[in-house]
Amino acid sequence: xxxxxxxxxxxxxxEFTYLGDAGGARPDGxxxxxxxxxxxxxxxxxxxxxxxxxxxxxxxxxxxLVVTRDTRTHEISDVTSAREAGLARRNSGTTSGEAA
Amino acid sequence: xxxxxxxxxxxxxRGQRDWKPQWRDAxxxxxxxxxxxxxxxxxxxxxxxxxxxxxxxxxxxxxxxHVGSGNVGRNTTIVRSNYLLxxxxxxxxxxxxxxxxxxxxxxxxxxxxxxxxxxxxHSDAQxxxxxxxxxxxxxxxxxxxxxxxxxxxxxxxxxxxxxxxFPVKGGLLQRRGGTVRHDAVAWGYARAASxxxxxxxxxxxxxxxxxxxxxxxxxxxxxxxxxxxxxxxSVAGSSSLxxxxxxxxxxxxxxxxxxxxxxGIKPLIDCVMTFGAGHFYVSQSDKxxxxxxxxxxxxxxxxxxxxxxxxxxxxxxxxxLWPGLGRLRLLRHWGGIMDMSMDGSPIIxxxxxxxxxxxxxxxxxxxKATPAAGFCFAHTIARDEAHPHSAAYRLDRFATGHVIDxxxxxxxxxxH
Amino acid sequence: MSTxxxxxxETQAPLARSDNPAQPFRVAGGLVDRTRPLSFRFDGRALxxxxxxxxxxxxxxxxVRLVGRSFKYHRPRGILxxxxxxPNAIVELRTGxxxxxxxxxTVAELxxxxxxxxxxxxxxxxxxxxxxxxxxxxxFAAGFYYKTFMWPAAFxxxxxEPMIRRAAGLGRAANAPDPDHYDRMFAHCDVLVIGxxxxxxxxxxxxxxxxxxxxLVDEDSRPGGRLLAERRExxxxxxxxxxxxxxxxxxxxPEVRILPRTTLFGVYDHGSYGAVERVSDHLAVPPAHTPRxxxxxxxxxxxxxxxxxxxxxxxxxxxxxxxVMLAGAVRTYLNRFGVLPGKRIAVLTSSDDGWRxxxxxxxxxxxxxxxxxxxxxxxxxxxxPVEAAGGRVLTGSFVSGTKGHLxxxxxxxxxxxxxxxxxACDCLAxxxxxxxxxxxxxxxxxxxxxxxxxxxxxxxxxxxxxxxxGSAAGDFALADCLxxxxxxxxxxAATCGFDxxxxxxxxxxxxxxxxxxLWRAPRTKGKAFADFxxxxxxxxxxxxxxxxxxxxxxxxxxxxxxxxxxQGKTSNLAGLSIMAELTGQPIPSVGTTVFRPPYTPIAIGxxxxxxxxxxxxxxxxxxxxxxxxxxxxxFVETGLWLRPAYFPRKGExxxxxxxxxxxxxxxxxxxxxxVTTLGKVDIQGKDALAFIERVTANPFGTLAIGKARYAILLxxxxxxxxxxxxxxxxxSHYVMTCSTANAARVxxxxxxxxxxxxxxxxxxxxxxxxxxxxxxxxxPRARDTLKGxxxxxxxxxxxxxxxxxxxxxxxxxxxxxxxxxxxxxGELAYEIAVPAAYGDAAWRAIMAAGTxxxxxxxxxxxxxxxxxxxxxxxxxxxxxxxxxxxxxLGGMLAKKKDYVGRLMKERAALTDPQRPILVxxxxxxxxxxxxxxxxxxxxxxxxSLAADQGYLxxxxxxxxxxxxxxxxxxxxGTERHGERVRAYDPVRGGDVEVEICSPVxxxxxxxxxxx
Lengths: 100, 416, 1011
Prior knowledge:
heterotrimer; A: alpha+beta; Folate-binding fold; four-stranded antiparallel beta sheet; 2 helices; B: alpha/beta; 10 helices; 28% helix
């Protein structure tokens, strides 16, 4: 598998570590209830198909990336910086699941 | 036909002409008491024990492909009950005991071979953590031995004791652990369940689960609607996809785990051995191939194949531990799709939907659990309550915090 | 219509029988070098061959036809093919530590001194005692073992299984470490061409001429494929000459890399390919500094699959007898190696292709006993030369049986009317069409598709970036291979942005590929094999059908068809076609097996590369490593680190004596320990504090500049991730430390929090673990020692620099350093950090400065003893299963901030008062040893799961207390001080009565810290 890091170019997946679903944003703040946090920590859509997910380029630039990949074929359609995606999410006030 | 040396000899004289299909290739009836989704080891075992232990025989096992086409035929065939945590110990030991009597029970030789499972350790800290596990097993009456370096040398003299980056200091041995011919487990349970009246319906994909008033009423399939009082999901690898049909999200991710087999060679290793300083474990099949594996590739996948980085990692572990492997050849590698749960332990439970039951989240340990998973899941389905041995495998344990995390890795399934 | 030419290419000398008595089957011609005979041994027998030979061609040249025994019935087996698909001729190659079992003689290049032995036979190849298995064949049907060996139950492991295991397997592995080494290469290219036959060479030429970066891999020692094996002409010249010229042109192109002896074994995601290059396998021993094999990981923008095709055997009784060969292989041996595999050769064919074999044999001066064509009629121009040479031609006929003791002596030919005839021959060449090699394109889970017009599976949807050409695409005619290859190469280069048109395709002599396969003989005598190596006969497939194993995967698993070392290259379609006939379905409806990598078996050593022995993983040395080595240190592997464990001195009897001395010295005087392995993270920015507050579980808002504080990090699920310290160096500059084991994981976690969870925070973080050497200086004389190290002008008195102070200082006359007054040992202690490049010098300076005070270096063992004496949690307690409260840190948790893990740690099970909690343990009898991993059990209680109260996490011999001590987790521990329980350790035979106590064994009031 090869992932095109926006900073380093296309690299072998051995340079990256995987975290998982880049779906729901962390429910921040003292007001968050346990059920929302439980869903965030434990539940997954686990789609067979296009999947937005987080990878860490630990053996490269140390960037977290949001990779859009089809879990049936491993085809990658998009790679963006997680920080950029995260900022966009913050600015639009949506959850990370909605901000692409 | 009863299988025995006599029937085999008799058929040898008759040109093998009288053997019948080992299980009936059934067509779906309109209605069943229980429809089990998934004709793998767990689903078939569940059907068998529903019939045998609970007298429930109006049962269908629906399988989208053919019997045993999923993980039961893709794993590395290891059975063991060397668990650490109280939630796991009684369950896996029950499974081991069922393995020990399986062949006589189902009249099918699954080649249960208790050749020993040896987990190597390479540091004092690892020794103490294995001792903790071994002692937990012994407290529960399960066999466990802590071998020192010389004890390990006696069993596997060919591994690297002198030039290792992480020297072998000893090992935790469960002699009752071993291997089982994986396909035979699926076929044996299929035959035994079929003989007790269970319908095994192959090439029948479930496309939907029908509900009315919070209860399931049956399954939509590629061969039509099948009405059912109870529906039991036993589809490790695809659990989330089936759950999504009833709008459930599970604490599960699907990951690919690769497995490997070498060319057949004369007997070389007589136990199952795991490397404690890398991702590598190995045993030898009755046919002579070394069967080995390592870690999951580590990303969500529904494709039954992995990538080179993991393959190299496994082989590196193999060569580091056993440098005599170098000239043996890898014959084939393949991948299976694992239900990776958030604490590394399975789920056998009812769901919030009446009549819908779930057996899922087996990570890469489902094969060894096959008999007990079938036994306990059948109990849950028949009695609507957990069997004591699987009582910890609740779906709500993540909300209550009663996680069963053998490795202490937390809610990141690719670390389990 | 056939226009097959029987005319020999005029540029080639006419072939003649060799009069070489040593190699009675060697004839003139071919590509072997006859000037330099090579000697080799097979089963001890001395034989000769030539450079350019394979072991198989040399054996055939010497008239050796019996080469091995089959897996199950131990039937005599010979050489079927001339390539990597070989199922039968597998041998043990080389001896001693280099012994390679299951080596295909057909691809093993001959070298001088080669030694090979037959395998899976006893006592000898000609007389194999287990040949009796063949007599029991009626019993040993597919899957018979699932039905028996069940009684008595205990006999399986004791008797049946050992017996089966001894009989199973094939060759013997070497019983010593592999003496050779392996290398790994990474390569990138525009166009990867897989296979160097006519299509592959054409593709590489087309792409190369356009300037693309091309890699051409070919599994053979000499690229050319069938061009080397056929008597064909291209542009009026022998095909082999055309191949040589194409290779020469490719070699002259700077952007083209040719990799012969290289098998492209696997296709992986996104244009990743795995290949193995057999660098030295054609030599007796790899030359110095040369690997045996090299694993290539190739990233290619485009790939042209030109892997060729594999010929199909016929299925009839006795089709496995040595002497029965593939017709194309007979041509290969003849045309490429100058070996005529028989004195009287018969051909069984269902295609025009088979007639080519007859023509080549005749042209070489050999004898064609007969050509049996399964088709009702054949064009006269095919028959005529054979009949003219005295050979029989039988059409509408098939072979129904074979004769011969250890090798073929005659075949039995039948026709539809039931007549049969016996024909004497010592070689039968089978032509039954070819199967495109669809393995590689199916590695990415793509299924091949059936083409009825050519009776074969061809690639279906190809993986993105891949095109197929030549016979791999089902184009069997040479002209189509050349033009198709060129087209594919041109297209591939063009999509990579290179310009150029394909050159006109070269001209070939005319040919016919007309073919009507016969899937199995309609009537047959004896076992008719579909899978040779695994002894899967038609009767086994029939039995599988009878018992319901009809889906192709079930058929394969039940009969083991296609699961031998050849992975069914010559057998899969035979199995499918027979099952199709039995079920009355078309072949593609039965299914296609999924081909898995590797294409051919690959040495495990090649995958591992250099990662074995001490080089399995990198070794990290601490900055004081050189000093430690000079001073006789004993090291211990800790992750990738090699950490000093203890420093034995002369006269010390064992490790414990050394460790005790180190502990005593620290507690009484001063010691220094290299703690560089800790994770160190630099955190800076306006929002540094806000960031730290969110990733730590205890409060930091009140942390003053110049102060450090213990830090707890949780995972989001509420369990402890790690612990460490956070020091505030300036207003917006913090340094965090974490444990050695978790350094990488914590850094990844912090980056995750910074980049993904809270990207809006103005904070930068960087790992400085490798940039700073860090040493703990501990003991009552620590301050005195450091005064001799730190530059004058820095006041480190207790008043100016109290417990938990931190500051930037300098050492050695202006070298920047950081000083932290923190303690793991419980003594007056500091940690001093210097830039890593000064690590060695700083260590030596500390040792020198401490010498007047009796300083000792101490290692991880003494460090561990002292932290257990102080009851500090470490890796054994922070094991991912414990909460902060479990390890006695519950009181430190912040209540007024949101942080990672805050909510989930409040779940019922994590706050259950019955959870085991960390306390101390002392043996009631002080002379008794404790062991970590022991479980706690009530005194007098019977061991059971329910009786389990917890376990000892860490133990040490405390020289301060003159007793073993331990810390551990036990239910309700805090309220049970003074109570006695048993530390039960059955796996080591231990059962020690212990008393529950405070986990702080030394200086519980923490007076020593603050002086």
